[in-house]
Amino acid sequence: MPADSQSAVSGKPVPQDLGWPIFGHTFELLKDPMKLGNRMRARFGDVYKTRSFFMEVVQLFGPEANEFVLLDKDQNFSSKEGWEPILKRLFPRGLMLLDFDHHRAHRRIMGAAFKTEPMRGYMHTMQERIPAYIDAWATSDEFRFYDAIKDMSLELATDVFLGLVGHEDSKRINQALTDMVSASMGVVRVPLPGTIMRKGVQARQFMVEFLTALIPQRRDGNGSDLFTHLCQAVDDDGNRFTDQEIVDHMIFLWMAAHDTITSSTTTLVYELGRNPEWQDKLLDEMRSLGAPDTPLSYETLGDLVLTEYAFKEALRINPPVPSMSRRAVRDVSFKGYHIPKGSYVGISMLATHRDKNTWPEPMRFDPMRFSPEGGTKERHRFAWVPFGGGAHMCLGLHFAYMQAKLIMYDLLPRYEIVLRPGYSTDFQIMPLIKPKDGLPVRLKQRD
């Protein structure tokens, strides 16, 4: 059933279970959001209200809910107000915390940093750096893949985004980003001494001071890194970013890019290790392009069709950001329920991606779901939303595809991914999806 029109603001009150006083379902959400969501949907259906992190939130479930909230044709929902309670102290004024015309204007300027020529430069930098990381991993009998790919992603981000290779502050920069993400899920939402929020706020202050000092030289520089492109970006009307806007966008992009690729590539490696026949299929595809002797070009990235299917399937099983938040700026109704102005509204990509009614055997790794014969054209277009949708569709999604393909193209033709016999792992969901044990793997050199 489609969402009701904007004018139809009457309807039933949203059923609710607010949980414990003050804290609501916060601790249950942090422990197992899927279990909480499944229990609520079994009781109430696809629309219900809960309380967590001191907020009452109307939860909407399913592809139609995703379309209603993300496409947002009538501009019913504020992304800025939806995310501010979680991110305002840590990532203020990032692209996700802007709305409507303001958001559109900033996105238009930022788009210059993701055009073809800058993307070619980012690709060249990554191709130079990635092989050394993978070779270093292979020297260990076994290593925690999540930790390794996180270190690599952070260091690549420092290189590709900032143009700083082996900088003396690299470790502090990487730790600052880690502290800021961790603080976003802190139960204590003010930076009191000893809290992870205090640690996150201090980390942000370091990042602001560090980046602000670099801006003057980058305004007139000739670097190929993303930071330089943002400093020099201009739209068709001649608009540029202020220093503060550059810093805010840079911190947010930096965080989003490295965390997304860390989570999604970890899931991909886990599933390839459990499904070695798919390693063989991707290897055959890569060898058809000349791997490992012939490097990928920007033009041949699109020829890694099966690799892209596999990456999409990893993003389906474990979307790095499991949910999204908005706030209603006017009264709306959805599926006969009245959602008052000012309500916080949440959708769960994770729950939609694992819904058996849309994705048969949802926990089975099957990249062919994304092939034409696998039903991709018949499936609801908002059944798969790891990068969001509508005006706030992730600006860096093509960067994520490119980095994942480059990693796999260098890894699989030279090494086999090997897991312990009978191994499986559990994934932590909040704030970003990752394996609880770090995913121990071994890379076996191919003959």
The helix count comes to 15
Distance between the termini: 55 Å
CATH hierarchy: architecture: Orthogonal Bundle
CATH superfamily: Cytochrome P450
Instruction: Kindly identify the CATH topology.
Output: Cytochrome p450
Total beta-strand segments:
13
Q: pLDDT under 50 segments (min length 5)?
A: 1-7
Secondary-structure content class: alpha+beta
Overall pLDDT metric: 91
Main sheet strand line-up: 2-3-9-6-4
Gross morphology is globular
Radius of gyration: 22 Å
- Taken in chain order, the helices and strands follow as EHHEEHEHHHEHHHHHHHEEEEHHEEEE
What does this protein structure show overall?
With 447 residues, this protein is of the alpha+beta class. The chain has a single domain (12-445), classed as Cytochrome P450 (Cytochrome p450, Orthogonal Bundle), CATH 1.10.630. Helices cover 47% and strands 11% of the residues. Strands 2-3-9-6-4 form a five-stranded mixed sheet. It has a three-stranded mixed sheet with strand order 1-8-7, with no helix packed on it. A hairpin with a 5-residue loop joins strand 11 (427-428) and strand 12. The chain is globular and about 65 Å long. The N and C termini lie far apart (55 Å). Residues 1-7 have low confidence and may be disordered.
